[in-house]
Design brief:
The strands form 2 sheets. The protein has a 5-stranded mixed beta sheet with strand order 6-5-4-7-8, sandwiched between helices. A 3-stranded antiparallel beta sheet has the order 1-2-3, covered by helices on one side. It has one domain: Ribonuclease H-like superfamily/Ribonuclease H (Nucleotidyltransferase, domain 5, 2-Layer Sandwich). The two termini are 19 Å apart. It is 34% helix and 20% strand. The protein is an alpha/beta fold.
């Protein structure tokens, strides 16, 4: 089920910097308040035609998430495919699994840059107290980089540490404006469908022996990202939200 209860997810879907809302009720999605500032006509956005107004709105968004980075993750099947003649024998491949060794990566970023990364060894966990400390560090970093203490739009999922009462109070105190996120929706989380997707795709097939090697590889990978990488990820958020509405709340895998 995409949602167990009704909630409103807000997304920007046109260049007038005005929100559309769509209501999740069970597994159904009902569009509400879908007026646009262009006479009620919703403007379809394509990546090559995103306006400056939308980019300015996306600039105000910060997003982040956590994900396990394994010491070894097998390549995707499509990446290990080889061209062969129709008469050539089919290659036999041994099924491989991710290694037991892993490290938890926390990352926060916006449409221009990485704000912070944190690594946590496998025996540790992220609870509400640790999340609150991370959020405080993020707020200080964002204010220092942007040179402003204005309200920060935050896109994050609904993991338990994120929605604990203490965490919500901390977010309100720090003037974060959390954009509603429907549960079980990694297709609407930029870190999942963009950042971690590309990171793991590039690291897959590489063997690491120690946690420190993983940290160095991730840090090096991040340094190689251009500003276009980050704005593309945020622009995809607009398109994913639009697809979600068009499909009446159905999961958008690709």
């Amino acid at each position: 089920m995409r949602a167990q209860c009704a909630l409103v997810a807000t997304t920007l879907l046109h260049s007038g910097a005005k929100f559309h809302s769509f209501l999740y009720t069970g597994s159904k999605t009902v569009r509400v308040n879908m007026e646009s500032c262009y006479g009620g006509m919703s403007t379809r956005l394509q990546q090559r035609a995103v306006t400056k107004e939308v980019d300015q709105f996306l600039f105000n968004i910060a997003t982040g998430d956590v994900s396990w980075i394994h010491h070894f993750d097998p390549e995707e099947k499509r990446l290990s495919m080889q061209y062969r003649h129709t008469s050539s024998p089919r290659l036999k491949k041994i099924k491989t699994m991710p290694s037991a060794g892993k490290i938890l990566l926390t990352v926060f970023w916006d449409s221009q840059r990485i704000y912070m990364t944190e690594f946590l060894e496998a025996e540790n966990t992220v609870n509400s107290a640790r999340y609150i400390e991370t959020i405080k560090n993020l707020w200080r970093r964002v204010c220092r980089v942007r040179g402003s203490t204005s309200r920060i739009l935050l896109v994050r999922d609904n993991k338990r540490p994120h929605i604990a009462r203490a965490a919500i109070e901390a977010l309100e105190t720090l003037k974060f404006e959390v954009l509603s996120h429907p549960p079980y929706s990694p297709d609407l989380a930029p870190s999942d469908f963009h950042f971690f997707l590309h990171l793991k795709r590039d690291l897959n097939g590489t063997h690491f022996t120690y946690d420190e090697e993983v940290k160095q590889a991730v840090t090096s990978w991040i340094k190689q990202r251009t500003p276009e990488f980050f704005i593309d990820g945020m622009r995809k958020l607009v398109l994913c939200c639009e697809k979600c509405i068009e499909r009446q709340g159905d999961y958008v895998e690709k």
